[in-house]
Amino acid sequence: MPKMHLFRSEDMTLVQLIIPVESAHGTLTHLAELGALQFKDLNPEKSPFQRTYANQVKRCDEMLRKLQYFSDQLQKSGLASTPSAVESDLNFDELEVKINELEPEFREVNSNLEKLKRTRNELTEFLLVLDKAGAFFESARQNANSQQREDESISGGESIESPLLEREMQVEPSKKLKVGFIAGVIPKHKANQFERIIFRATRGNMFYKCVPLDERVSDPATGDQVEKVVFLVFFSGERSRTKILKICDAFGANRYPFPEETLKRRQMRIEVSARLSEMQTTLDVSSDHRETVLKTIGYQLEHWLEMVLKDKYVYNALNMLSMDVTSKCLVGEAWSPLGALPRIQDTLRYATVETNSQVTTIFQVLHTKEAPPTYFQVNKFTSAFQEIVDAYGVGRYQEANPGVFTIVTFPFLFAVMFGDWGHGIVLLLATLWLLVNERRLGSQKLGDIMEMAFAGRYVLLLMSLFSIYTGFIYNEFFSVPFEIFGRSAYKCETPSCSESTTVGLVKYRDKPYAFGVDPVWHGSRSELPFLNSLKMKMSIILGVAQMLLGIVLSLFNAVYFAQPLDIWFQFLPQILFLSSLFGYLSFLIILKWITGSQADLYHVMIYMFLGPTDDLDGNQLFAGQKYFQLALLFIALISVPWMLLPKPLILRKQHLEKTQGEGYAGLEEHPDEEHEEFEFSEIFVHQLIHTIEFVLGAVSNTASYLRLWALSLAHAELSAVFYEKVLLLAWGYQNIFIILIGFIVFVCATVGVLLVMETLSAFLHALRLHWVEFMNKFYVGDGYKFQPLSFVNLGKEDES
């Protein structure tokens, strides 16, 4: 039988490479660009720090850390990393030197810029303190002037221009009261608590005044925009001053010097404004310089990241190779597809020329009994279906791949449960949007759900197309039937029955409805019994057909791997057992449909076991049915010991003949040959479990396919409920507002329940039918995937 492209995995071979040390990095770089070799780890006992190229990997990690720092700074600055059309031709060592020079330089620029911003923010706050606190002092002075004019005769003609504390200064030094004040800025949300703490600390011997700022200001410590207030605290005594200073530090309040005299305050404000202007100019120049440096880095950042990631990837691969005793060559073993060997040899010759190596790489094929990896050549259409299979388990090397059949059977079984051509069209439109925007969406970072939907877009495409097909068979468009394929085979017997579909219908022609279910069944009294019977029997036929396909595929595996015991004592009894019971049931269902018989198939199957010799009476569908059933029952019964006993006994006999035929001469001829241990009890128990699992599974798996009937019925009934109890009910009110609300509720219910939840439910049930009922008949799934050394896998490894 010719080998199909996707039916069996690619032929693999184990190769050995002996690479000179001086050209090892360049050679593996070219092999990674080819992507056809999966290297084996020949140093499993060594930790990552003990390997040959551990220092190079460490250097790559350090460079990646610095490049990530540059990337973060670009994002914070709102600049995009725009690759330059002309890429730099730096090698790894030159790039390392350049990055090591750029990083401290850029950190120094950042540090200086932060200091400038901090100073600018402090000067801004200082200026606000001078304005707000100065306004308070000016207000106090105006009040004092007015009070002085009233009390001028009493005050003795004192000028208000004299210091506010002049009276204390005129008192005797021993009785002088030392009053001071502290001015500063504090976040608005801390102001009330700050005031209460100061009040308690000074026992009320203070005067507190705060003025909120009109706009948010940048905090000098964090650079964040914060709502703040300017505060003034008057106190007396050095102890109070010390306490207030500690409280200011605890609350993160910024204190600023504030002169009491008006002239000094004005002069200080002029100086602060000038410094602030100079600082802003310096800050603008520094920011422009930083942005220029960042843009220069941004032009090459992606290229540098790619270069360092590739180098790290290659060095990690080199660490899987072993150094020979001369320390001049690296020895590696790798799996490769058989068809890729010529391309690998051409790549090795090209790498030898490119690296100017005096010694060529030695390449040779090894023979081994080790199981090779599994590799399928998939495209963007088949990859999603293969991922469904691989999620169950990666196939054993060259066993039959269920992914070939999953392309058709998976969306079809989904559609059996989801069948409605209206819902299928909506699902198709959503899928077409994904396909039209495939290139744009493929280059974006999507959310988890959207990422899964995009990855399975071709699965969704077939699911929607099959749903439209089964929807035409069920004749359901949002639960509404249409006479698309001709007229109904029934008509009203009397004019009055046109208003009702439950009575008065008669069949007026022998030619049935052309395709699918006759629309007249929908809404009739016998709709549910008719559709129940149809879908239940259809589910059994589909399930038995798929399980028989799985058993036939086990025959293909047994023939391909030359396992005659599996053919005679596994495939044959299994196909006979399933066919004699449930295959026969499927035959009776089809025969009953063809002949129009009224036989009770439940009675036939039950009494096939309970009373095999009893007469069938009215349940007989063909002549000789009773004796035919006896023969099938005998075949089913004999298939169980046929499956259980011969295979373990024959294996035991073969093992005894093999061990008795081996002598000392045979052992000397093959001293390195490994002999597998043979435990008859283990093999017998394994076969017993396999037999019981198949016999019981034949019943349970067939019953499991009834989920096709159950979910199809649930989908149809939910669709009918939404249509009749929401849309039609709202339409009956003849009110545009109620109709609009009803339509919105109908659309939301249809999308949320039928197009999202029901789609997910039918998808999961179809997944279970493939994994459990179909694939367990032939699929081992204990292999491991071919993961070649390829730069294409760089992004995947980075995500994991």
UniProtKB/TrEMBL annotation:
Membrane topology annotation: Multi-pass membrane protein
Subcellular location field: Membrane
Transmembrane segments annotated in the record for this chain: 412-435, 455-474, 540-563, 575-595, 627-645, 735-757
Pfam name, any one: V_ATPase_I
GO cellular component: vacuolar proton-transporting V-type ATPase complex; vacuolar proton-transporting V-type ATPase, V0 domain
Biological processes annotated in GO: vacuolar acidification
KW Cell membrane (keyword) present: no
Listed GO MF terms: ATPase binding; proton-transporting ATPase activity, rotational mechanism
Record keywords: Hydrogen ion transport, Ion transport, Membrane, Transmembrane, Transmembrane helix, Transport
Superkingdom assignment: Eukaryota
Claim: Repressor is one of the keywords in the record: no
Free-text function comment from the UniProt entry: Essential component of the vacuolar proton pump (V-ATPase), a multimeric enzyme that catalyzes the translocation of protons across the membranes. Required for assembly and activity of the V-ATPase.
Family statement drawn from the similarity comment of this UniProt entry: Belongs to the V-ATPase 116 kDa subunit family.
Protein name (record): V-type proton ATPase subunit a
Source organism of this protein record: Selaginella moellendorffii (Spikemoss)
